């Protein structure tokens, strides 16, 4: 929608159309409201649209517009995941939650918790695998990574082989095919001993319970991967220190780059908008050049002093 403000005056009438018996009219009304509504209307709209399927993308756009409302919308999306629906419907919701997590770091733990709950009883292998990839990537970066490690291993025990493989393809471990070649012995609790380099750490092994002669089986090893490269680590530290929102996905650092530019937006005390550009260069360490913009000097001076 190019000019949402042009129809804002009609929002009250549009809200009355949400319950229209004509599904097409009701759907058009709610999607329009999600694009034109104010921040104060978010909670009310969430309560009125729980039976709609086509609003998922509109909710994602709304969360980008009002990031402070992520908890309300994340809870709503989680409730939608519990409802009946096909693969495409569930995938749209999962993709929406993952998008919110990527755009809003403050929503990460809430979003991961909702996704963990969903795959406890998920019938779609593709979605379960995708979520476990995400847990393997983002879980170790949270304040309590151990709960995600425990969750992943719970899935190793309970899920089918395709999901098990997906858990480890996410970058946190290895799956080993084993065959017993000793015709006079039954092997029990079979594991593969790994000797990782200093940057890696073996966290846990899941053995193959037993292997009869010439019968294949699988065991698993969970490995902690090295930390992010210095530039990515510096970006994460800057975002956390300033408490501002990354723009244009600039908090995602491409691999094998020696320089990167981070863009941040936030609000200073008194409702003053602030923009920050941080240019990072990797040498012996990470050097940073910071530019701050605001309509008054005070927030500029405060931010520059805090990072200087």
UniProtKB/TrEMBL annotation:
Pfam families: Adaptin_N, Coatomer_g_Cpla
Domain of life: Eukaryota
Annotated ranges, domain Clathrin/coatomer adaptor adaptin-like N-terminal: 1-165
Gene Ontology cellular-component terms listed: COPI vesicle coat; endoplasmic reticulum; endoplasmic reticulum-Golgi intermediate compartment; Golgi membrane
Keyword field contains Ion transport: no
An annotated Gene Ontology molecular function: structural molecule activity
Signal sequence extent: none
Biological processes annotated in GO: endoplasmic reticulum to Golgi vesicle-mediated transport; intra-Golgi vesicle-mediated transport; intracellular protein transport; organelle transport along microtubule; protein secretion
InterPro entries: ARM-like, ARM-type_fold, Clathrin/coatomer_adapt-like_N, Clathrin_app_Ig-like_sf, Coatomer/calthrin_app_sub_C, Coatomer_g_Cpla, Coatomer_gsu, TBP_dom_sf
Membrane topology: Peripheral membrane protein
SUPFAM superfamilies noted in UniProt: ARM repeat, Clathrin adaptor appendage domain, Subdomain of clathrin and coatomer appendage domain
TM annotation in the entry: none
Location relative to the cell: Endomembrane system
Keywords from the named record: Membrane, Protein transport, Transport
Record domain Coatomer subunit gamma C-terminal: where: 231-307
PANTHER family: COATOMER SUBUNIT GAMMA, COATOMER SUBUNIT GAMMA-2
Protein name per Swiss-Prot or TrEMBL: Coatomer subunit gamma-2
């Amino acid at each position: 929608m190019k000019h949402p403000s042009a129809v804002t005056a009609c929002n009250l009438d549009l809200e009355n159309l949400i319950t229209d018996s004509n599904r097409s009219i009701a759907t058009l009304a709610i999607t329009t409201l999600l694009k034109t509504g104010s921040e104060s209307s978010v909670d009310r709209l969430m309560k009125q649209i729980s039976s709609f399927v086509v609003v998922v993308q509109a909710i994602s756009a709304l969360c980008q517009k009002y990031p402070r409302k992520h908890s309300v919308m994340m809870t709503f999306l989680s409730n939608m995941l519990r409802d009946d629906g096909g693969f495409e419907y569930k995938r749209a919701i999962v993709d929406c939650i993952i998008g919110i997590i990527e755009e809003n770091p403050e929503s990460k733990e809430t979003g991961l918790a909702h996704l963990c709950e969903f795959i406890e009883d998920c019938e779609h292998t593709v979605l379960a695998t995708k979520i476990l990839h995400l847990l393997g990537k983002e879980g170790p970066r949270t304040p309590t990574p151990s709960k995600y490690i425990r969750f992943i291993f719970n899935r190793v025990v309970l899920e089918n082989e395709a999901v098990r493989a997906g858990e480890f393809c996410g970058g946190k471990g290895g799956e080993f095919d084993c065959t017993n070649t000793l015709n006079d012995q039954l092997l029990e609790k079979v594991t593969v001993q790994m000797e990782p380099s200093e940057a890696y750490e073996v966290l846990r092994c899941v053995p193959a319970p037993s292997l009869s002669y010439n019968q294949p089986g699988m065991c698993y090893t969970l490995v902690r991967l090295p930390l992010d490269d210095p530039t990515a680590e510096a970006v994460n530290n800057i975002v956390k220190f300033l408490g501002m929102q990354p723009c244009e996905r600039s908090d995602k650092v491409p691999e094998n780059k020696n320089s990167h530019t981070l863009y941040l937006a936030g609000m200073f005390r008194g409702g003053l908008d602030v923009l920050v550009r941080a240019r990072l260069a990797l040498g012996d360490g990470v050097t940073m050049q910071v530019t701050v913009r605001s309509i008054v000097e005070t927030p500029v001076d405060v931010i520059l002093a805090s990072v200087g």
